[in-house]
Design brief:
CATH superfamily of the domain at 64-229: MetI-like
Distance between the termini: 19 Å
Oligomer: single chain
CATH class of the domain at 64-229: Mainly Alpha
CATH architecture of the domain at 64-229: Orthogonal Bundle
Radius of gyration: 23 Å
């Protein structure tokens, strides 16, 4: 039964309202970033003004935020390259396991993910200090892999669970071992889910603030930490923070636009079953 025009129109209007609500903070931050401070904090808000990109220039040229962007990208990409392959193999194994053992592992992973990250910050700091890894990429990558691995495993397992076991059995009959079944038969089927998992892992690592604040220093400072340093001294820094916040979204937006087709397929994966 096809939905009526009224229900379609209602759904469309609801989606438009939801989109507008989510875009409002971004639009407001962009307007603050191109306003002079006297206009940015005027009450009532000034809607007609002369835009300036002075603060964007200060952020990326004078404040050298491009260095922090490079640090964020390096750490995020390294985290994805380590956590996603490990999580994918673990998720495949857990999706094919049955019984109390697999449930216990899954419960343990869920408990690890629910554990407050703020309680892990000091142990990670002490461990990194003992290993002389403070203000290095390695400390951040290892910490992010550790805290994001349960999420990666859970998400990839949900995709593997949509693949019928008959596919594994058919591959086994054709002479494939477990690794060949995983890499050549099952993995190509869940490739859209792999893109989705990679994106979420990238976002979690790219936007991480707490561990970056504790484990990084001048050499490896990331964008979230750099942005947080502005806004406490005078009004100009609020405009700088807004300009930096807009800039931090650009790599993610470009990444999502480039992989839009894969992401849509991954999100819809398993929604329609044969």
């Amino acid at each position: 039964m096809r939905p009526s025009r009224t229900s379609q129109l209602s759904l469309f209007l609801a989606l438009c309202a939801f989109t507008a609500i989510n875009l409002t903070p971004i639009i407001w931050a962009f307007m603050i970033s191109i306003k002079q401070p006297v206009d940015a904090f005027a009450v009532p808000p000034v809607l007609i003004f002369t835009p300036t990109f002075e603060f964007h220039h200060q952020v990326w040229v004078e404040k050298e935020f491009w260095r922090f962007l490079i640090n964020s990208v390096v750490i995020a990409v390294a985290t994805v390259l380590i956590s996603v392959p490990i999580g994918t193999m673990a998720a495949f194994a857990l999706s094919r396991m049955r019984g109390f053992g697999s449930r216990g592992v899954l419960f343990g992973l869920l408990a690890m993910r629910m554990f407050p990250h703020i309680l892990l910050a000091i142990p990670f700091f002490v461990l990194a200090q003992m290993l002389s890894l403070i203000d290095t990429y390695a400390a951040m990558v290892l910490a992010l892999v550790a805290i994001n691995q349960p999420f990666t495993i859970w998400l990839m397992r949900s995709f593997f669970m949509e693949v019928p076991l008959e596919l594994d059995e058919a591959a086994c009959i054709d002479g494939c071992n477990v690794w060949q079944t995983f890499s050549k038969v099952v993995l190509p089927v869940v490739r859209p889910g792999l893109w989705v998992t990679s994106l979420f892992s990238l976002l979690l690592a790219y936007n991480e603030f707490l561990f970056a604040l504790v484990l990084t220093g001048p050499a490896t400072k990331t964008l979230p930490v750099a942005i947080a340093e502005y806004g406490a001294e005078d009004l100009n820094y609020w405009s700088l923070s807004a300009a930096a916040a807009i800039g931090i979204m650009l790599p993610i937006v470009l990444f999502m636009m480039a992989l839009q087709r894969h992401l849509v397929r991954g999100i819809a994966f398993g929604a329609v079953k044969g």
